[in-house]
């Protein structure tokens, strides 16, 4: 288990610092391998970071990004993570953003699509950005979901899972496609973005206890051989 904590005075400072980390991860990857692969959290918290990164001058056509999880909704729906990412990166001309879901949002078709897409994108991620809910979910690894144990298995044969949160979160009450824990951890850099005092309390509990089924974020924090950069601001 390992984590490095980065505390910032405000979200503007957090945004600038994390955008810098992602820029550096892409630059290193492009220099070493000629391409970069990113997995990016949805929700709301990290989007200023993505807009700041998109404003940078980069060879975007050598970079591929995908959501770390998505809601099974049509891409035209306001809750679609991939649609929100495509909007946030509108200035990043040439960047390919792969979807975990099909355009109409059907759950089973999305699962097949995500697994096929991931089979074509097997490289380790150069950076993974994760968020966390107040229920301690990360990506769409929700406590209590039936598919959670399978999605958390380190020797899982599949990289993507269909998760139905139970209960459904009121702010986004949809089945989800999520990358599994093992796929998320296959990364050169892991960045967890957490804001506010309530989420900090949840984080502290997850740091103190390795209880993946009750607090899925704790599986990430306590994963052997992983170092998680925790970025926090009020
Ligand atoms: O539903 C989701 O929630 C988490 C947390 O979102 P936040 O806006 O509270 O940071 C997010 O990381 C995940 O990608 C999303 O699908």
TrEMBL record:
Stored InterPro entries: 6-phosphogluconolactonase_DevB (IPR005900), 6PGL (IPR039104), Glc/Gal-6P_isomerase (IPR006148), NagB/RpiA_transferase-like (IPR037171)
Catalysed reactions, as listed in the record: 6-phospho-D-glucono-1,5-lactone + H2O = 6-phospho-D-gluconate + H(+)
Record EC number: 3.1.1.31
Keyword Phosphoprotein: no
Domain of life: Bacteria
Annotated Pfam families: Glucosamine_iso
Domain Glucosamine/galactosamine-6-phosphate isomerase: 10-221
Pathway: Carbohydrate degradation; pentose phosphate pathway; D-ribulose 5-phosphate from D-glucose 6-phosphate (oxidative stage): step 2/3
Enzyme type, top EC level: hydrolase
Keywords: Hydrolase
Function: Hydrolysis of 6-phosphogluconolactone to 6-phosphogluconate.
PANTHER family: 6-PHOSPHOGLUCONOLACTONASE
Similarity comment text for this entry: Belongs to the glucosamine/galactosamine-6-phosphate isomerase family. 6-phosphogluconolactonase subfamily.
Xref: NCBIfam families: pgl
Protein name per its UniProtKB record: 6-phosphogluconolactonase
Organism expressing this protein natively: Lysobacter hankyongensis
This protein's encoding gene: pgl
């Amino acid at each position: 288990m390992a984590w490095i904590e980065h505390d910032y005075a405000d979200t503007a400072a957090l945004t600038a610092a994390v955008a810098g980390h992602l820029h550096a991860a892409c630059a290193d990857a492009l220099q070493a391998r000629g391409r970069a692969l990113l997995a990016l959290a949805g929700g709301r918290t990290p989007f200023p970071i993505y807009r700041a990164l998109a404003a940078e001058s980069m060879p975007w056509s050598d970079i591929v990004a995908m959501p770390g999880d998505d809601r099974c909704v049509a891409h035209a729906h306001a809750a679609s993570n991939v649609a929100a990412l495509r909007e946030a990166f509108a200035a990043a001309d040439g960047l390919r953003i792969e979807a975990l879901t099909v355009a109409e949002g059907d759950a089973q078709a999305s699962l097949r699509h995500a697994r096929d897409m991931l089979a074509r994108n097997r490289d380790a991620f150069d950076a993974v950005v994760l968020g966390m809910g107040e229920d301690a979910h990360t990506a769409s690894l929700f406590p209590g979901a039936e598919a959670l144990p399978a999605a958390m298995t380190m020797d899982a044969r599949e990289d993507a899972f269909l998760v139905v949160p139970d209960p459904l979160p009121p702010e986004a009450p949809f089945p989800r496609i999520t990358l599994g824990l093992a796929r998320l951890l296959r990364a050169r850099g892991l960045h967890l973005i957490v804001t506010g005092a309530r989420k900090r309390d949840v984080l502290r509990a997850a740091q103190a206890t390795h209880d993946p089924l009750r607090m899925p974020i704790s599986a990430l924090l306590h994963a052997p051989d992983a170092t998680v950069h925790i970025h926090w601001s009020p």
